[in-house]
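Exam review. A common question shows you a sequence with its structure tokens and asks you to describe the fold in words. Practice with the pair below. Do the first one on your own.
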Amino acid sequence: MTRTLRAIAVFSGSNFGRGEAYRVAAAALGRAIAERGMAILYGGTHMGLMGVMADAALAAGGIVHGVITERLQAKGHLHPRLTAHEVVATIRQRKARMAELADAFVALPGGIGTLEEFMEVWTLNQLGEIAKPAGLLDVQGFYQPFMGFIDHMIAEQFLPAAHRAGIVVDADPSRLLDGLANFQTVSAPKWLK
């Protein structure tokens, strides 16, 4: 069964990262989402990879909807050319709004905020509070150490092995989006016996 994905929430770094590969990947993801006619939901800033992704999607004719906090807007971080934007009081409200509007989630490389946002949606899926696929764009193996830690959780029996397949991990934006559209929810129980 293929899912209909109308809007993808993208979590991403507000820095560029080291080297050009991260910028290239962020632009490729923005274009790929726009070319499929899906909207992008993201943190609403022009900063770092977030801005690169938004610029590429807009240049490809895509719909880019920013959800930014009052504090970041006051610092002048709001992207000036978004299709639409909302200003909310807190990061928690921003995450809730993005989760409400999105059909799926993607994390580009980023820092602790990106990882925290991604882990929240993975956890909500694991607990059955939402049923929206999530994936990692694994640029240059960026997320391999993280997946190694997930494997350590499994080895130490804090996570059922089947739950490693609870997310899509791919280095190619098109394959990642295909994986999200074709994602099958993990049915194995969360609790180990």
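Now try the second one, then compare your answer with the model answer below.
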Amino acid sequence: MSSLRAHDVGVVLPAGWDGRISVRRDGATDTLVSATGTKVFAARSHPVVHLANFGLPQDRGDFGSGAVELMGDADIFVVLFEHEPASAQTALFRADGMPRVLEPREFDPSNLRRGIAGQSGYQAFFHEQARAFCLYVVLGAHARRARLVPTLNRVLATVTISPQTAR
């Protein structure tokens, strides 16, 4: 077992698991400007946690592009994606606390961001410690979800989210 902790998020990984906690780029504010020059949106990059029971590729998207294509039938890929702190007060993130015990029936191939034959997904939005997150999980085989979910739950049970400190 190994511990992984960064950006006020921690997890204990079983043997054979890989994980990264990172913030895209340098955390500088990203600003979207319309064609008319009006500032439409400004956001600061926040932590993204990637966990998997297989080796994570160096290049992968926030929600697993580049990783989920490599998954085998017994593989699990987890994303904990943090959103803007103000989002924690919105209806989308109204659920209090990260789901740490999932049921096999909660997984469905239609929950995948990018459908890959045989895979299954789960997604939930929640707030914890005044922080807004999306938990996104991909199972390598929908048919094996009853076997894979207990392993996933053991990892989710170790996730800690602390109040965000200044970066």
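Model answer, second protein: The CA atoms of residues 117 and 150 lie 22 Å apart. The mean pLDDT is 90. Full marks require stating both points clearly.
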